[in-house]
Amino acid sequence: MENINLKIEGMHCDGCAKRLEKVLNNIEGVKTAKVIFEEKCARVEYTEEKVSVEELKEAIVDAGFEGIE
């Protein structure tokens, strides 16, 4: 298992954070994802063999946000 903290730009409220958290948690290979609106970040625990950091970032962008490592 790997852990990463990704900075997230474009969140405007707690609802945004909850929606993004749901998106990340539905990705195969993600064990847990916690999006913290106040810190503008996502803490993700994932399996490197199943999902890459680039795929996580793509999911963030597809959800309407900007992901910055």
Helix content: 25-40%
What percent of residues are in strands?
A: 25-35%
Distance between the termini: 18 Å
Biggest sheet details: 4 strands, antiparallel
Radius of gyration: 11 Å
Number of E strands? 4
Overall pLDDT: 94
Q: Catalogue the unreliable spans.
A: none
Number of helices: 2
What structural category characterises the helix and strand content? Answer: alpha+beta
Shape: globular
Spatially, the strands of the biggest sheet line up as: 2-3-1-4
What is the element string, with H for helices and E for strands?
A: EHEEHE
Annotation keywords:
69 residues; 4-stranded antiparallel β-sheet; globular; 2 helices
Which SSEs are present, and which pair or pack?
Layout lengths: L1 E8 L4 H12 L4 E7 L4 E6 L6 H10 L3 E3 L1
Antiparallel strand pairs: 1-3, 1-4, 2-3
